[in-house]
Write a structure and sequence with these properties.
By secondary structure, this protein is an alpha/beta fold. It is built from seven helices and nine strands. The chain has a domain of 136 residues: P-loop containing nucleotide triphosphate hydrolases (Rossmann fold, 3-Layer(aba) Sandwich), CATH 3.40.50. The radius of gyration is 18 Å and the shape is globular. The structure holds adenosine-5'-triphosphate and magnesium ion.
């Protein structure tokens, strides 16, 4: 049963006694058939912070993201998130019977005009496909349309669940750069679920490892941007995270999956 529902984060009365958060989760528990997949989890994300979330398959990452997105409210504990949030999943989930720009505006309140969709599509480099049908888009284009749909909401919190998982290596690198640029420009908080340790170290301010229903480990990524995988510190962080995930780090720097 939910003991609390999603509420907008309010500015604390006394900033000196409480730090403002984009996400505040306390004692979150979510069970399926009597099994607690999330089990007393605490998490804070600062406004504008880029956090990556790693963890073995089935540990509850998507469950956590769905809760933060407000898609699952059958919870115990406290979850505070900004009113303006948006989510993009591994599969772009575009409606095939709606043109790209209509997909971007889908679910927005009122009657948003096309120019709004066009601006978001321009931001992700997809303005030339505004009128296209989703089935005519490449995988990378569809993912960018999905990102535009998230951005058009002008979120204070952007939730990304393995958004690059289905992309080929080159398209994936481009999509990672795009997310990096958008985050720097927009300044929203990002929570990125990924299986790719290098992706997490490349993009995030902080990387979390989820295990046994809680955040079992976290590390700040103390690398200057733009980051390169050839940096020795990058290798150290990657090895440390792989070890936490129970994977032996390879000697050379190949893309590493958790
Ligand atoms: N609606 C549901 N009903 C029952 N069990 C569920 C439901 N949703 C998730 N689970 C279970 O909760 C656990 C966590 O699932 P979740 O999708 O959050 O994992 P994940 O960490 O995102 O995994 P992956 O990395 O494979 O995407 C799994 O054991 C899954 O079977
Ligand atoms: Mg998942």
């Amino acid at each position: 049963m939910a003991t609390d529902v999603h509420r907008p984060v309010t500015t604390p009365k006394s900033p000196s006694t409480e730090t403002r958060s984009a996400v505040r989760v306390e004692g979150l528990t979510r069970s399926f058939d009597g099994r607690a997949v999330i089990d007393g989890l605490d998490l804070d994300v600062k406004p504008g912070e880029f956090v990556a979330l790693l963890g073995r398959s089935g540990c509850g990452k998507s469950t956590l993201l769905r809760i933060l997105a407000g898609l699952d409210r059958d919870i115990e504990g406290t979850v505070l998130v900004p009113r303006r949030k948006a989510v993009a999943f591994q599969a772009p989930r575009l409606m095939p019977w709606k043109r790209v720009w209509r997909n971007v505006l889908l679910g927005l309140p009122g009657k948003p005009d096309r120019a709004r969709a066009e601006r978001a599509l321009e931001e992700v480099g997809l303005d030339h496909r505004t009128h296209a049908w989703p089935k005519t888009l490449s995988g990378g284009e569809a993912q960018r349309a999905s990102l535009a749909r998230a951005l058009v909401r002008e979120p204070d919190l952007l939730l990304l669940d393995e958004p690059f998982g289905a992309l080929d290596a080159l398209t994936r690198i481009k999509a990672q750069r795009l997310v990096d640029e958008l985050w720097q420009r927009r300044g929203c908080a990002v929570l990125l679920v990924t299986h790719d340790v290098e992706e997490a170290v490349l993009l995030a301010d902080r990387v979390l490892v989820m295990d046994e229903g809680v955040i079992a480990y976290e590390t700040e990524i103390d690398l200057e941007r733009p980051r390169g995988i050839s940096d020795p510190r990058f290798g150290e962080l990657r090895a440390e995270l792989l070890q936490r995930l129970g994977v032996d780090a390879p000697e050379t720097s190949h893309p590493a999956a958790a």
